[in-house]
Design brief:
Blueprint (H helix, E strand, L loop, with lengths): L1 H7 L11 H12 L5 E4 L3 H9 L9 E4 L2 H12 L7 E3 L4 H24 L7 E5 L3 H12 L3 E5 L3 H9 L3 E2 L2 H4 L5 E4 L9 H6 L4 E5 L9 H7 E8 L2 E6 L4 E5 L5 H4 L6 H20 L8 E3 L2 H14 L9 H8 L6
Helix pairs in contact: 5-6, 5-12, 12-13
Length: 334
């Protein structure tokens, strides 16, 4: 970010460790540049535009959204008729969610929790709350380190997939008393709530890697506690009225960013390549897309995958003309 300012003269409004007031001040400073295309990560920029800067909406060609949570919010806006300009859901590209969410979030979440606590993962009961692409990645990495992974879900297909991937699947009511580490990846509020805290064992660790600091009900946790103290950077001990201790990491914020460095560049490059291609598409197509949440064109996905494979020195096969003809014909059978 500093290089963008120093080398390219691009205005940047951000600082590490910003509080909510600073965060929204930076969003407003960005909007003062009167953007024609927005690139968002969580839909706060878009929401602020629609709530407080509607004077800018007519000048917008379109936008992109990077995250699962942001896409959920944008689809809710579209469903309510509130969305005022078209957004392309970069998060839905295969070269985003299959890699960034699964491998990036999977690795960086484990990294953040390890840096914050220096725990040994082997033998721990790790409760992964939510089995979307991020949850799949975290569960995969935790199991690879020797943890016993428990998955909780509200969607039956994802729960079934988790079970067939070899994880224990149960309700949070069952998981709460046996979990050593709880990691929320749902995109929703209060995935860990008061009645879960009441059942947890002394010393349980709570971390979030799915959304803003709302997945763990921190207000309820504070209300149950007789004291709170920071025992090391990114680790706060909440001592409950009955003497049990629960450890909250990174103030409930995204632990892979709060205590680690987020995704490695070698997985973010695919996400940002999708962003760049999509912005070019929005800016040069000649007419504005209909107001809706759109998917990334398939050819962008394939181009990003081709570029990534080339950067890795990997060559794959191509269909022969005979094979192409067979796949496009209905006349040839068994």
């Amino acid at each position: 970010a500093a290089a963008l300012v120093a080398v390219h003269g691009v205005p940047v409004f951000a600082v590490r460790g910003e509080d909510d007031a600073t965060y929204y001040r930076h969003i407003h400073a960005t909007l003062e540049q009167r953007p024609q295309v927005t690139l968002d990560d969580g839909a706060d920029l878009v929401a602020t535009l629609h709530k407080e800067r509607r004077d800018l909406l007519d000048g917008l060609i379109g936008g992109t959204e990077e995250t699962t949570t942001g896409v959920v919010r944008l689809r809710a806006m579209a469903r309510d008729g509130a969305l005022a300009y078209p957004i392309v859901a970069v998060n839905e590209a295969d070269t985003k969610h299959l890699f960034d969410n699964r491998y990036g979030t999977g690795q960086s979440t484990i990294d953040g929790i390890t840096r914050a606590t220096n725990i040994l993962w082997a033998g721990k009961n790790v409760v992964v709350v939510g089995y979307g692409w991020c949850g799949r990645g975290v569960a995969m990495r935790a199991r690879g380190l020797g943890a016993k992974v428990i998955v909780t879900e509200v969607e039956p297909v994802r729960a079934l997939e988790a079970a067939m991937d070899g994880h224990q699947v149960m309700s949070m009511a069952e998981a709460a008393p046996i979990g050593d580490i709880f990691i929320t990846l749902t995109g929703d509020i209060n995935a860990l709530d008061r009645h879960h805290f009441e059942a947890m064992k002394d010393g349980a660790i709570l971390a979030n890697s799915g959304h803003f600091n709302v997945e763990i009900n921190i207000k309820a946790l504070e209300g149950m506690s007789e004291s709170k103290r920071r025992i090391r950077q990114h680790v706060e001990e909440y001592r409950l009225m009955d003497g049990r201790r629960l450890f909250l990491l990174g103030e409930g914020r995204l632990i892979n960013l709060a205590a680690a460095e987020g995704h490695p560049a070698s997985v973010m490059d695919m996400s940002f390549a999708n962003q760049a291609l999509t912005v070019e598409y929005l800016a040069t197509r000649g007419e504005r897309l209909p107001v809706a949440v759109h998917i990334v064109p398939k050819e962008f996905d394939e181009e990003v995958a081709r570029l990534k494979l080339a950067s890795m020195g990997i060559v794959i096969d191509e269909l022969t003309e005979e094979q192409r003809k067979y796949l496009s014909s209905w006349e040839e059978g068994t």
